[in-house]
Design goal:
Number of helices of chain A: 15
CATH class of the largest domain in chain A: Alpha Beta
Structural class of chain A: alpha+beta
Number of strands of chain A: 18
Strand content of chain A: 15-25%
Distance between the termini of chain A: 21 Å
CATH architecture of the largest domain in chain A: 2-Layer Sandwich
CATH topology of the largest domain in chain A: Uridine Diphospho-n-acetylenolpyruvylglucosamine Reductase, domain 3
Largest sheet of chain A: 7 strands, antiparallel
Helix content of chain A: 25-40%
Shape of chain A: globular
Oligomer: homodimer
């Protein structure tokens, strides 16, 4: 708990109206998109870097935790105040400071909503590709802190690939500038990428310099239905071998399709093992050519149905199915544990089979969907967090699915981060040495463990 | 100096034939592509990770420096034994361990020559884009340690963008595995990118997992002559605004052209301010369309001459000019100080003018060429390292050119690294806070300063 004199001091820095102390207010900042929730001691809403500097100096002096928070859409517990402390809400620092059209660079504050930035740059014929599912509410700051991905990552890469530079407030309250407006920069250690994806444990990101690209001229979307998952996976490999790099290569399994169909009645097949949603973009002639090539390849490799969207309305219908997934799967059970493993692309069929076997063994409802192009699958376990017996089985199943991913040469997390949810499993992938190297970095840069304690490394 | 009992122990680990002790042998490992040279105490040539682990354990016990070395083509002094110690030559660890065509991933040892890997993957229809000028001799390990770039970086990114995972021997002799075969991975801190570009100061890279892409179907090359540099720069911006992303956008200034023409008699113009060499690649129809678009844009924006290569022979002729630059410029003076600043693309004309002004003021010969697409310029100061009066002027000019780059929002080094050459200027860009953050990481991961001491941070 924070003393009232300390709260007073914080109020002086930020103005009383930007410091929330009541239980009701604090409750509103203690959750994210995981099933967990914790109560912070205080919530603050700074508007500038200087205020954050003062707060961190205070935190380092009085040793209270500071937990940066964007929109709270995280899926690994990154913004949960697991050890109490002060929630630092960055939503009021939401200015797009510059869109430099000549150098294809945007400079933004962390609270800018991802979709808002995308709209603004697209008005200018430019493009910011990273597209986490939460993009209509999530913030760029949160995207950078978690190194968010999204369907378009297969062609365009993840958030990391667009962060050119950062302004960071260190735990001591100092200002660190990393990178800049140039794409190439090898001046000392790559701090920009170290802080990107560091989940708020090393510093508070207060400014972000992002690379933009020209907006692709056209795009074309298709849905392909497969009786057999292996044929879908084989098609994906063949598409890429032909030198075609679609923007998205989304995969939905049978259970996912049934959930969506039950929810929306779109006429999805209920007896097929897999559906791919493929989108290609680029110059219009090339897009036309490639979408037809993909169609032919699919038909030659076991596709039951190939549907190319002829217009924007048909394109919307295809994406409606994919977008409905999250809402549809929770119709089965109230709690959704959304996992985020990635495996080498060729291992997708093996991984899906192992996932289904694990779910069967623990008698759990499991919907699998994700990004087939980069092997990033989202197995969603549908359960009830109030059913403690079921949650025990969920826990065991999660342990096994992580184990399987790592055994197949994959990773615990493709795009959601470790947070609290995956902290107990971290060493599975990093080993003891990787864990110790990461912890040495944390200790070197935040010796008093002020910033977002309990994340990545767990409570250890 | 190493004691003879220590040398004995090292010989036991590696076999006597892989430990060089004579002055002649040691002299061969004390230089790189900078004008500097230092004498190591010992040179060792390990063949496997286990040997390196044993050496590092010994180094940490007896506190001698270990300096990893690839082909010695570095331009910032990264492999120079500035404090003596043991040169760890990685050239015998030169196996391509796997080219995984299904997942588009190659796993290699650090001593693999860049061009060799490129040939092998291209035989399979795949492509490894990073192309430092030294690629015919440089090693992948060195490329990763320095985060090498090259002309193709404008479209395809730098080495960092292709490193998916690493095996590293830590200063304690432990094995650290980072990343893996998946493109997406956010499991804890991004150690893969932290070690990439860390110039051998944090660990010895013993295995590298690289992302590959499908080989582009076709490419087309052109040379464009401009009376005025500003017109060349304007064209570059307009090309990108049209959504065309060429593979290369190489720029040569008037002095560079004169040097090349003097050396090779290719018929280059001697009265023009700038030449651009532009190459586009991709599907054949698109390449044809884009090269013509670039041609039209150039003519509409002050180009005096636009020459599109009609065949491979003409393409070779165009590239011959660019490739001859390094050899040509040293015809003027024996010593070439090759700098590597990068500025936001729009600042290229300003930067070139400031560079010319600095060279004029210090009465130095300066040739400027580089990668206009990403604002990465290589101002080459041509001088005589035995002329101490001239070298003093060179020193001052370098300080000013770094200052100018940073003032224009740029960086000290786009692709060569800091090494020893730029260490005195590091804080110009990182500031005190960035310097201390980097040094805290170095201290946390190599507390005894065994690995490549004197680099990045200087002797401080």
């Amino acid at each position: 708990m924070l003393s009232s004199s300390l709260i007073n001091e914080i109020q002086k820095i930020l103005g009383k109206e930007n410091v929330f102390t009541t239980l009701e207010e604090r409750l509103c900042y203690g959750y994210d998109s995981t099933p967990e929730a914790f109560l912070p001691d205080l919530v603050i809403r700074p508007t500038c870097t200087e205020q954050i500097q003062k707060i961190l100096k205070l935190a380092n002096l009085h040793l209270f935790p500071v937990i940066p928070r964007g929109a709270g859409t995280g899926l690994s517990g990154g913004s949960l105040p697991v050890k109490g402390g002060v929630i630092l809400d960055l939503n009021r620092m939401d200015r797009i400071l510059e869109i430099d059209e000549e150098n294809l660079v945007a400079t933004v504050e962390p609270g800018v909503i991802t979709a808002h930035l995308q709209e603004e740059v697209e008005k200018r014929g430019l493009f910011y590709p990273p597209d986490p599912a939460s993009l209509k509410t999530s913030t760029i700051g949160g995207n950078v802190a978690e190194c968010a991905g999204g369907p378009r990552a297969f062609k365009y890469g993840v958030t990391r690939d667009y962060v050119l530079g950062l302004e960071i407030v260190t735990p001591k309250g100092e200002i660190l500038q990393t990178g800049g407006k140039t794409v190439k920069s090898v001046t000392g250690y790559d701090l920009t990428r170290l802080y990107t994806g560091s989940e708020g444990t090393l510093g508070i990101i207060t400014k972000i310099i992002l690379r933009l690209i020209p907006k692709p001229e056209a795009k074309k979307t298709m849905m392909i239905v497969y009786e057999r998952l292996d044929d879908a996976a084989k098609t994906v490999t063949l598409i890429i071998k032909q030198g075609i790099i679609p923007v998205t290569l989304e995969l939905m399994d049978d259970i996912t399709m049934r959930c969506v169909e039950n929810y929306l009645q779109l006429g999805l097949p209920l007896d097929a093992e897999a559906v791919l949603i493929i989108e290609v973009d680029g110059p219009i002639d090339l897009v036309e050519k490639q979408i037809n090539q993909v169609g032919e390849l699919s038909r030659a490799n076991g596709a039951r149905e190939v549907k190319i969207a002829k217009n924007e309305k048909e394109r919307e219908e295809i994406w409606a199915a994919r977008r409905a997934v999250s809402a549809a799967v929770v119709q089965i059970k109230p709690t959704k544990i959304s996992e985020d493993i990635a495996v080498p692309r060729s291992q997708i069929p093996v991984m899906v089979r192992r996932l289904k076997e694990i779910a069967f063994r623990y008698q759990l409802n499991l919907a699998i969907f994700g990004h087939a192009g980069d092997g990033n699958l989202h197995p969603n376990i549908l359960c009830d967090k109030n059913d403690s017996e079921e949650m025990e089985r969920v826990e065991k199943a999660i342990g096994e699915l992580f184990q399987a991913a790592v055994e197949l040469g994959g990773t615990l997390s493709g795009e959601h981060g470790i947070g609290t949810m995956k902290a107990p499993y971290l060493k599975l992938e990093t080993g003891e040495v990787g864990f110790e190297v990461m912890r040495a970095i944390k200790k070197a840069l935040d010796p008093n463990n002020i910033l977002n304690p309990g994340k990545i490394f767990g409570s250890g």
